[in-house]
Amino acid sequence: MAEEMHGVDPSAGHDVSVQEMGAVQQFTVTMIVRRFDPETMEEPVWQDFDVEAYSTDRVLDVLHKIKWEQDGSLAFRRSCAHGICGSDAMRINGRNRLACKTLLKDLDITKPIYVEAIKGLPLEKDLIVDMDPFFASYREVNPFLMAHSDPEKGKERRQSIAAREIFDDTTKCILCAACTSSCPVFWTDGQYFGPAAIVNAHRFIFDDRDDEAQVRLKILNDKEGVWRCRTTFNCTDACPRGIQITQAIAEVKQAIMRGRP
Ligand code: SF4
Ligand code: FES
Question: For the chain, what percent of residues have pLDDT higher than 70?
Fold first, then answer.
């Protein structure tokens, strides 16, 4: 399956034509994708594709062009195509990104673009991994409101703007797994909850309408919980929602030491 790998550097003789169309550039980009088919392969291989693209295209658009015009067997997940569903996290030039939010104009298209599945989760096919271990950790932290009392009949649970602000950042998670699968501790320790589970625990630990923060703090005080974090900041760098994940993990650690949110 693998074809010869090569660059797109014009000086190296690669067939690159860059045409200006107003502010939009058109060019041939080389995308090198790590392919794996469990039915026919022992190990993944890299395969390169040359694709006509525009600077306004995203990595997801290039993957679509490959799938629709060159090789229909290419497997990847995507749904919304607008950074909301979290299904197309992948490693792009070695960094975890959403394919639908990564514009070609922000990459160096004089070089090939390397695309592979996120790490630390079982590889199923091409760019698709088994997300079950990721969601199992997420479920373990009880990522839902647990309140002992009912709101006043016909009324909502009231919360001040200041109280809502405390956990606003962690409400933005789209469960893409870019953070967890960029974490070296998660790669080497299949038991660590990982940053995404901690982010989603944080979202309820600091919600003053919730009554079970202690339950989550106890879960995260486990040997596979927050203390595994080595503060590498990979997670924060990878998050497509800009969530300050390392800070959220630090706040959960502080809450455990205080014994309360
Ligand atoms: S915290 Fe960010 S990177 Fe991690 S799963 Fe949520 S949205 Fe994705
Ligand atoms: S396809 Fe939904 S976030 Fe990228």
Answer: 92
